[in-house]
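Re: that backbone. Tokens:
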């Protein structure tokens, strides 16, 4: 039996009944909204089979999944890995005691956090991607890396600063070098603290791959544009693409949450051994 909350009293029979009524009303409202949307689709002819046929045809489904979803996941995965490395490097750099290192890291992080992702994609593509350049795919990946890496740099910095100072002081007292303290003491605890923010940023990176359509980069939105350009079914393409993005984000969130529970567990201070036995 769980302990009672100290913040509020447990709801009584009337409150529980009222909550059930609110839940039922909420479900009915959602169902009514869904029914209204379906009716509007029917009324405007958006449910005609010819408009949905491309998404039921094996050839188009294969293109949508292989050239669309797979490329989107690939772009997101590469940019996320690079963004994490970027974030760790510049996040730690912003904490440096040396001004010649701290201020350039601060300038880079603040600049790329402020520039809109779409504008960054345009700049990288037209400066380095066209012709014999890096192409649309890597233009999107680099833009996502720079933006999400800058955001993660702040996340890492905040996570490291959130670790109790006594952890680092105890490690220094044992004679550990600054690099050892950062990699062995501070970063492992900081990752536990900032995992929710990391998971949110993974979802943002995945969704922002859709901006690649602006320069013709491969992905779901690009394939969807090809389909609705041929069949004039923009609404149906948007619905299918949205469902695929939602499904991918739900899987990514579930996977990240599982990793958090499996390999991190409860957030506890990392024990630092002290001279003479015991831990801090």
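Recovered sequence:
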């Amino acid at each position: 039996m769980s302990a009672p909350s100290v913040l509020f009293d447990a709801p009584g029979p009337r409150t529980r009944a009222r909550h059930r009524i609110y839940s039922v009303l909420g479900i009915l409202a959602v169902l009514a909204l869904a029914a209204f949307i379906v009716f509007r689709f029917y009324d405007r002819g958006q449910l005609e089979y010819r408009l949905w046929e491309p998404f039921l045809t094996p050839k188009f489904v294969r293109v949508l999944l292989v050239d669309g979803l797979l490329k989107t996941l690939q772009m997101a995965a590469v940019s996320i890995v690079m963004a994490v490395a970027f974030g760790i490097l510049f996040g730690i750099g912003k904490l440096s005691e040396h001004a010649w290192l701290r201020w350039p890291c601060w300038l880079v992080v603040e600049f790329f956090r402020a520039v809109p992702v779409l504008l960054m994609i345009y700049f990288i593509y037209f400066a380095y991607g066209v012709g014999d350049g890096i192409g649309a795919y890597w233009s999107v990946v680099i833009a996502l890396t720079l933006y999400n890496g800058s955001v993660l740099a702040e996340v890492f910095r905040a996570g490291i600063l959130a670790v109790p100072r006594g952890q680092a002081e105890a490690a220094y007292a044992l004679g550990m070098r600054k690099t050892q303290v950062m990699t062995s003491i501070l970063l492992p605890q900081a990752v536990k603290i900032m995992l929710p923010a990391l998971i949110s940023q993974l979802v943002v990176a995945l969704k922002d791959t859709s901006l690649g359509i602006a320069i013709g980069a491969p992905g779901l939105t690009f394939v969807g544009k090809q389909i609705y350009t041929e069949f004039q079914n923009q609404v149906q393409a948007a619905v299918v693409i949205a469902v695929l993005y939602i499904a991918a984000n739900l899987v990514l969130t579930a996977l990240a949450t599982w990793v958090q529970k499996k390999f991190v567990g409860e957030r506890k201070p990392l024990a630092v051994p002290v001279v003479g036995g015991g831990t801090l």
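Residues 68 and 223 are 6 Å apart (CA to CA). The chain is about 75% helix and 0% strand.
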